[in-house]
Amino acid sequence: MTREESNKPAPCPGCGTSEHVPVERARTDRSGRREDLATRLASGPDHTGGGCTHLAEGIVIAGMAAAAGAYAADDRNLPWLTAVGAVAAVLILVATIAIVRGENRDARRVLAGAAWAAELTGDARYCPGCRGVFSASGSPWSQPVSPERFRLHVWTAAGYGDLLDAKAKAGEPPSP
Ligand SMILES: [Zn+2]
Asked: Are the beta carbons of 141 and 151 closer than 8 angstroms?
């Protein structure tokens, strides 16, 4: 990743101030935290809770289903309950693996697009006056756009724009 920061930044095309900062810094500085810019300017989804946890949980639950079936079969003298427990266990395992594989696929896509997302973000500047993002080079944003628009563009260009919907629904802060 290359980042060029000239000593004299060009004024913001929206309001003319030079007090704008690289998007990467805006995410973490004080005012950025206040406005939740880490999320609103994120260049990709952050994955909390890995697939391994889900897999371990699935195996435990499947094991419990199998054990419960075997126990009930013994207790009530109904041998076919063992098979029911085993089938339930297999179904739980299959579902768990499908979920984990889906998550891994998303994670791979995010990883694959990360370089391009970083490139797009590299010359993006956040202007606190306009509360918007513009490109130092003038392309693709010659005028400040909202953090949400910036994020949608980056995620879409990086190939995982569809992952934004679920995240946005999860609790998008209202735009000022
Ligand atoms: Zn501005």
From this structure: no
